[in-house]
Write a structure and sequence with these properties.
The protein is an alpha/beta fold. It is built from 15 helices and eight strands. It has a single domain (3-312), classed as Homocysteine-binding-like domain (TIM Barrel). Strands 1-8-7-6-5-4-3-2 form an eight-stranded parallel beta sheet. Helix 9 links the parallel strand 5 and strand 6 (195-199).
């Protein structure tokens, strides 16, 4: 059988996560913005399956169930069928390669109005019961703004005998109650998480700054955990504390912020150098971005993903071009040092968050 997530990480192996589902499927016409719920697993399973396949081909070692926001508070009676269908799709695709299935839960819509621990834990437990029935390989609690709710999620997921990963959607300033990233990481590990980190809300550079703070917090407390990062595929140096949702371009005008594959190679190398071994992406992270992680870390891993058959390292495929100035771009120095223009002369390079 396949090695489990903790066996892989404990041996020092790099685990490549998957990428964007909600934002990508919204662009493809299968998800409605605003609600951001994953009924596509039932309405358009082929679209979800295809996206899983593209990430697998690009090098992902984890197929996350498309269950973001799929709790009863967001989906009412549909939640159970959606969770079950999402598990089946992830398992079907994971079986075609060296990938594990991760059952995923995220923060509830009710926490910010009333911090009802019993009610919120019941919502998490409902999803967990489906994941246990469908026998997922491990569990991820992701996209939490408040460490208190993230701890509740970890406590529920620990009721199953599967490894638990948890990622918060916070930046270097910490959670919405000003609890620092280092302190958040400590609380999550003490609650029982084996893998901790951040996902979403901020781009690669900002997310790695937050990871560094989490790592320092764990070291100071003398705690051990595996580190995981899944940032946006968008550059967000101008974000405020709540990340990209407060930028005026969110969610329908983010295109000019998309990271290049070369930006992502740099991110993968920096994450690796920081000691992060579970490296993936969140909103805006397309299959070619995941392939970039796999290509950057191919020397350490000893292999390339299937999708690299259609891609020369650092642009080497361009050496066949008829135009000599394009042939000259078939080298690492060219792409590593490129300063890409946006083609929008009247637009600012940075925005002001609305909040």
């Amino acid at each position: 059988g396949k090695l489990g997530i903790l066996e892989r990480l404990e041996s020092g192996e790099v685990v490549i996560g998957d990428g964007s589902f909600l934002i990508t499927l919204e662009k493809r016409g299968y998800v409605k913005a605003g609600l951001w719920t994953p009924e596509a697993v039932i309405e358009h399973p082929d679209a979800v399956r295809q996206l899983h396949m593209e990430f697998l081909r690009a090098g992902s070692n984890v197929m996350q169930t498309f269950t973001f926001s799929a709790s009863e508070d967001n989906m009412e009676s549909k939640w159970e069928d959606v969770n079950a269908a999402a598990c089946d799709l992830a398992r079907e695709v994971a079986g075609k390669g060296d990938a594990l299935v991760a059952g995923g839960i995220c923060q509830t819509s009710i926490y910010k109005y009333h911090k009802d621990e019993a009610r919120i834990k019941k919502l998490f437990r409902q999803q967990l019961e489906v994941f246990a029935w469908k026998n997922v390989d491990f569990l991820i609690a992701e996209y939490f703004e408040h460490v208190e709710e993230a701890v509740w999620a970890v406590e529920v997921l620990k009721e199953s005998d599967r490894p638990v990963a948890v990622t918060m959607c916070i930046g270097p300033e910490g959670d919405m109650h000003d609890i620092t990233p280092g302190e958040c990481a400590v609380r999550l590990v003490k609650a029982g998480a084996s893998i901790v980190g951040v996902n979403c809300r901020f781009g690669p550079d900002t997310s790695l700054k937050t990871m560094e703070l989490m790592k320092e917090g764990l070291e100071r407390a003398g705690l051990k955990a595996h580190l995981m990062v899944q940032p946006l595929g968008f550059h967000t140096p101008d974000c405020g504390k709540e990340g990209f949702v407060d930028l005026p371009e969110y969610p329908f005008g983010l295109e000019s912020r998309v990271a290049t594959r070369w930006d992502i190679q740099k991110y993968a190398r920096e994450a690796y150098n920081l000691g992060v071994r579970y490296i993936g992406g969140c909103c805006g992270f397309e299959p070619y971005h995941i392939r970039a992680i796999a290509e950057e870390l191919a020397p350490e891993r000893g292999f390339l993903p299937p999708a690299s058959e259609k891609h020369g390292s650092w642009g080497s495929g361009l050496d066949m071009h008829t135009k000599p100035w394009i042939r000259a771009r078939a080298r690492r120095e060219y792409w590593e040092n490129l300063l890409p223009a946006s083609g929008r002369p009247f637009c600012p390079s940075l925005s002001k968050p609305d909040f």
